[in-house]
Design goal:
231 residues, alpha+beta, NADH Oxidase, 4-stranded antiparallel sheet, 37% helix, globular, binds flavin mononucleotide
């Protein structure tokens, strides 16, 4: 083994001009790779956006692990431009619902174009957002834009989008349901969540167990042939 790879953190190695540490690859035998990928697909293929939640409490620790996992996402220039605000206090969730429904009434009643409303029709969504109070937790994900913590932001939106993907995957894997909700506009969330102006809310994600009688829209995913192009 190359000894230079065993240098402790912070020591330039292997002739590189910046500090490195040994990489810790997840070693999967080539013969097991496809099976591992297929098994993960089967788990992820069962994820659905849920809009009817039970108030059953969350198991201890899951939110923290999911947010730790989200925060492992790659990010432009490693800026890690995310903030995950977890609301569990009923009074805070009530304020969130009230403010969100006021915005959504405007959206569905006035601002949304006919075309947009048509695209939303098969999902059965409207201004009413009871899940913001019923779900035991709501995670509001903020992008951290230019400010004291992030003097030079890079690819903020893209980085936060990837982090949210990991968040949803971890919560799903733990048996919890999520709803990726994007009220528009979202400025009111800074006040509800006590966040400074350089942080911009991007997702409101209720988390919990689905209601026992929860149903989901009968929609389908595009087949591989339609989404993958091999050149
Ligand atoms: C960026 C983004 C924004 C979304 N916004 C909303 C929303 O505001 N309200 C809602 O009910 N669903 C919202 N969804 C959920 C989508 O409608 C849902 O993911 C899609 O219909 C596919 O269904 P599935 O997640 O069950 O596979 C959003 C999803 C994404 C990725």
């Amino acid at each position: 083994m190359d000894q230079t790879n065993e240098q402790p953190s912070g020591v330039p190695t292997g002739g590189l001009a910046y500090p490195t540490v040994p990489h810790r690859p997840l070693t999967v035998p080539a013969g097991a790779a496809e099976e591992r990928a297929r098994t993960f697909h089967e788990v992820m293929d069962r994820r659905r956006t849920v809009r009817d939640f039970s108030d059953r409490p969350l198991p201890e620790g899951v939110l923290e692990w999911a947010i730790r996992t989200a925060a492992t996402a790659p990010s432009g220039a490693n800026v890690q431009p995310w903030r995950f605000v977890v609301l569990t206090d009923p009074e805070r969730k009530r304020r969130l619902r009230e403010a969100a429904e006021a915005e959504e009434r405007e959206f569905y009643g006035r601002r949304a174009s006919a075309e947009w409303l048509e695209a939303l029709a098969p999902l059965g969504t409207d201004w009413s957002k009871p899940f913001l109070e019923v779900a035991p937790a709501v995670i509001v994900v903020f992008e951290v834009h230019k400010g004291p913590e992030t003097p030079r932001p890079y690819y903020t939106k893209e980085s936060v989008g990837i982090a949210v993907g990991l968040l949803l995957a971890t919560l799903h894997q733990a048996g919890l349901a999520t709803l990726t909700h994007t009220p528009s506009p979202m400025r009111f969330l800074n006040e509800v969540c006590d966040r400074p102006p350089e942080e911009r809310a991007a997702y409101v994600i209720p988390v919990g167990y689905p209601a026992e009688d929860a149903r989901v829209p009968d929609i389908h995913r595009k087949p591989l042939e339609q989404v993958m192009i091999r050149l």
